[in-house]
Amino acid sequence: MGTLIILAILALVVLGFNNPLWWLAGAALLYLNFRYGRTGQGSTGSSSPRGAGSSVRGDNDYRAYRQRRDQQARWERRYRRERPWMTRQKRN
Fold it and tell me: What gap in Å lies between CA 86 and CA 78, rounded to an integer?
């Protein structure tokens, strides 16, 4: 996806030699790419918009994920324990 964005920016710059409005469109696309396009791709360091604070948020996200996963596993074990006839597979 990033390659398509870069190609689009280059095409807008080339078209901008005839019409400066295309340069503005290329600049806007470049800005949006740097602002929003790099998040979610595993980028680290200062290239992420939140800087060093994002790792703390990531740790909290992982803890919340683990809690949800563990809670779901407890619910599934309880369901299987309370309804053993529902979880048996039929054999032909």
Answer: 12
